[in-house]
Amino acid sequence: MAAFVRRLCHIAFHVPAGQSFARDLQRFFGFQPLAAREADGWRQLALSSGHAVFLVNEGVGTGDPLYGLDPRYAVPSATNLCFEVADVGSATRALAPRGCRVLVPPVSVRDVQGAATYTVVSSPAGNVSLTLLERADYCGPFLPGFRPLPSATGPAWISHVDHVTLACTPGSSPTLMRWFHDCLGFQLQPLSSGENPEVGLEVAAGSGQGGLRLIAMQTSPSNAIPTLVLAEPLQGATSGQDPLENFLAQHRGPGLQHVALYTPDIIEATERVMLSGGQLVTPPEGYYQQPGKKSQILAAGHEPSKLAEQGILLDGEKGKFLLQVFTKSLFAEDTFFLELIQRQGATGFGQGNIQALWQSLEEQAAKGQET
């Protein structure tokens, strides 16, 4: 099926009232208030940094009729991906025969700045639903019914969402891959030259026990729609600290594990996060002492001691490099974290960085158990 989604509009989250998630996005990551709405016991706050837009839904109760949220998912979580489409009606008619359950039939909303039409459909990725939005005729800052909010001026140090990662149960990623291909037109994006398209990229865990399988998909090579990454744990972990298994347990099923935010200057962005008190994952001991790592960092034009000080991972080859840093969970439950990413010519994901992140999360989990 040809892709009909035009771009990612926003990512929605559901959190209990009074949680600090929206404040943390502003304080630690430079997000600015965009628009807000209060209705039916829910407070909805849209925040943006560059083209990255998060909608934080704060409320009480067991479910939200706006997204048809499954009440089983009572933990704070990313719950909805909103994509812009040209025609909501035709998109809904195309998806219904392909097994998409319509949670919210097409509805039009209007205010003084114009009108928009949306529908919400289910996905097989746990509690993640999809909103298809048609708003070509809307002139407001976000959506009808939201009041604009003042925000600070100045350049955003995050430009867009680079990729989103869905954590899957063991053996389920091929089914999800076919669904996103058949329903939304996502195509496989190989992560390595020797990757089996039916299996994806398998990465061994840092401990040597278990690991993970990654499948990356794109609709087109553009910033408008981020890469979709499916991640599932491989069998064999014995330590009880498998990061994906830990997510699946605390999240109570599959879901959106993390969002990668692209920054043109990861050193500046990381400094801002650290100075404001944001918590970052510490790379495994010895990462920067690996054979060839120092020369690799220098070849990319960076200072090894600076990257080590900030915990920034670097991987790449043939003049194409990838820099990444990861936050700790933004919720008390280990159900969501952010990644900052900068690409210097690299289009995929560094396998060395994946292994380093995995080992870091295992070490973090082990320390948590000790305390």
TrEMBL record:
InterPro entries: 4OHPhenylPyrv_dOase, 4OHPhenylPyrv_dOase_C, 4OHPhenylPyrv_dOase_N, Glyas_Bleomycin-R_OHBP_Dase, Glyas_Fos-R_dOase_dom, VOC_core. One of its GO terms (molecular function) is 4-hydroxyphenylpyruvate dioxygenase activity. Its cofactor is Fe cation. One of its GO terms (biological process) is aromatic amino acid metabolic process. It holds the Pfam family Glyoxalase. It catalyses: 3-(4-hydroxyphenyl)pyruvate + O2 = homogentisate + CO2. Residues 7-135, 160-328 form the VOC domain. PROSITE patterns: VOC. It comes from the Eukaryota. GO terms for cellular component: mitochondrion. SUPFAM superfamilies: Glyoxalase/Bleomycin resistance protein/Dihydroxybiphenyl dioxygenase (SSF54593). Keywords: Dioxygenase, Iron, Metal-binding, Oxidoreductase, Repeat. PANTHER family: 4-HYDROXYPHENYLPYRUVATE DIOXYGENASE, 4-HYDROXYPHENYLPYRUVATE DIOXYGENASE-LIKE PROTEIN. Belongs to the 4HPPD family. Catalyzes the conversion of 4-hydroxyphenylpyruvic acid to homogentisic acid, one of the steps in tyrosine catabolism. This is 4-hydroxyphenylpyruvate dioxygenase.
